[in-house]
Write a structure and sequence with these properties.
Shape: globular
Number of domains: 3
CATH topology of the largest domain: Spore Coat Polysaccharide Biosynthesis Protein SpsA, Chain A
Largest sheet: 8 strands, mixed
Number of strands: 13
Number of helices: 20
CATH class of the largest domain: Alpha Beta
CATH architecture of the largest domain: Alpha-Beta Complex
Radius of gyration: 26 Å
Helix content: 40-55%
CATH superfamily of the largest domain: Spore Coat Polysaccharide Biosynthesis Protein SpsA, Chain A
């Protein structure tokens, strides 16, 4: 390793690279080796390998401030805001463990960058919404202090005296923030982990159209729970975060609504989306309204999969929320004109049936796409995929068209282009709604690529409840399910 450092100091970069490759062929990479390797790769402008080397190093030590400097240099080529956030994070960790010389160097890097670069970056107001137990609030505030750089945020604690007054209290607090800061809504039962806020801010400034970013957690709405997690305590949650809150090549999943118990919102759009209507009281419908307010204004929302936070499961609040769902569903449907439950679900079981390499360039069509949630999930899994949806209900298609390629049409008389070929055509609980599903399936085969596939799910009439009622003389249509009143056809497995 000393020979490599000597070659770098002598500006013998080719020799340094050769020595480094020899070293890595015989030795396992450690933090120091990753820092040296990233420095060499930066000189040769090998950006892809540079990012991979930084990621490897941060997997070894999430708190390595030298690697955040190099990550800032990496982002400096394309995104000055993300670059500065990385330098800021480097300073945060250097203040904990670095030498005075290293701290001074990072401060100088930041000062020089500010002088030479036009930055459009805001600090954060963390609005802690306290409607739980005091012990949770104390843990929440302690985690903020320990894991967030004090120069970049201020905390406001909002005590909620009544669940019914929560929405109006949040509205007042958000709209009364006069400072030019982004706003982070955080429930008091949530524990911010290392890099959680840092990565949320990277997400918020990844692209101009992103207006809000949300964490993932052990307990979350909108499918924002990592499938592989095994987190049953705060200690496990923090350990999980330390190994997962690292740079990722594809960490942002676009959504039409996210869990707003830990959501970061750009200051620019606050006046456009607040106040929220205070007729909604439960988390699910309040979050849905917030999300729809954002996407119908032409902005994007993302779930940030490298921003894991731990959340205490508060059973009292769960029960309270559940008691309000029916009322909120009726209020939401009256305002928006549709059932969120019917059109917003992600059909993960259908997306799981697409078994291709993550970097494959797929063409995927979904019929009955609803608000496009399944297509967005597929596009997150397969970033090079081109996705398209067809949706019968114009109100739904109009909303979804703000963030996804969704067309309003009746699939039974839809005219495909001759060159329109797909790797997968998805029909999730669609065929039973059609006059002639058999003819449609035959027609769709013409729009499949060689080895293409139709993925379909169909309700099974041989449902125990349906059969029981049928044996007792009842065959009553319902709003949803096997006997959905809009079903025209009925099927069994065989």
């Amino acid at each position: 390793m000393e020979k490599i450092i000597t070659a770098i100091n002598n500006n013998s970069w080719k020799e340094a690279l050769e020595l480094f490759l020899d070293y890595t062929s015989e030795n396992k990479l450690g933090e120091e080796a990753c820092i040296i390797g990233a420095t060499i790769l930066e000189h040769f402008d090998d950006t892809e390998s540079l990012f991979d080397m930084i990621q490897t190093g941060l997997k070894i030590n999430l708190f390595s401030y030298e690697l955040y400097i190099l990550l800032g240099n990496y982002y400096g080529r394309t995104n000055p805001e993300k670059a500065y956030l990385c330098y800021e994070n480097a300073l945060f960790y250097a203040l904990k463990s670095g030498s005075e010389d290293d701290i001074a160097t990072i401060k100088q890097i930041m000062a020089n960058y500010k002088e030479t670069t036009s930055l459009h970056l805001r600090n954060v107001i963390i609005l802690v919404i306290n409607d739980g137990e005091k012990k949770y609030l104390d843990q929440c505030l302690k985690a903020i202090s320990e894991n967030c750089f004090s120069d970049c945020y201020n905390v406001i604690t909002l005590d909620i005296n009544s669940f019914e007054d929560r929405t109006s209290a949040i509205n007042n607090a958000v709209l009364n923030v006069t400072d030019d800061n982004d706003i982070f809504l955080l429930r008091s039962d949530v524990i911010l982990t290392p890099n959680a806020l840092f990565n949320l801010r990277l997400a918020l400034y990844d692209r101009p159209e992103i207006a809000a970013s949300s964490c993932v957690s052990n307990y979350a709405h909108y499918y924002q729970v990592p499938l592989e997690h095994n987190v049953n305590s705060m200690e496990q949650g923090i350990n999980y975060a330390i190994s997962h809150n690292i740079p990722m090549s594809n960490p942002y999943e676009r959504k039409c609504a996210v869990d707003a118990d830990f959501i970061l919102i750009k200051k620019d759009i606050i006046a456009q989306i607040f106040p929220l209507d205070d007729y909604l009281l439960s988390d699910g419908f309040l979050f849905t309204e917030l999300g729809l307010n954002i996407v119908t204004k032409g902005y994007s929302i993302v779930a940030c999969w490298n921003s894991f936070v731990y959340r205490h499961k508060n059973n009292d609040l769960i029960v309270k929320n559940a008691s309000l769902l029916d009322k909120d569903q009726a209020c939401f449907t009256r305002k928006w004109g549709f059932s969120s439950e019917y059109y917003m679900g992600i059909r993960t079981e259908l997306a799981d049936m697409i078994r291709r390499k993550p970097d494959d360039a797929l063409n995927i069509l979904e019929i009955g796409a609803g608000l496009g949630t399944t297509l967005l999930n597929i596009q997150y899994r397969y970033p090079n995929a081109t996705v398209k949806g067809i949706e019968l209900v114009d109100k739904i298609a109009n909303i979804a068209s703000n963030y996804c390629d969704i067309e309003c049409a009746n699939i039974e008389n839809y005219k495909f282009n001759d060159e329109e070929k797909y790797d997968y055509i998805i029909c999730g609980d669609v065929l039973e709604h059609l006059v002639d599903p058999y003819a449609l399936v035959d027609r769709l085969k013409n729009n499949l690529k060689p080895n293409g596939c139709i993925i379909a799910s169909i309700p099974n009439l041989l449902d125990a409840d349906v059969i029981y009622n049928l044996l007792h003389g009842y065959f009553n249509y319902e709003e949803s399910g096997v006997l959905d009143r809009t079903h025209l056809r009925f099927f069994t497995k065989d």
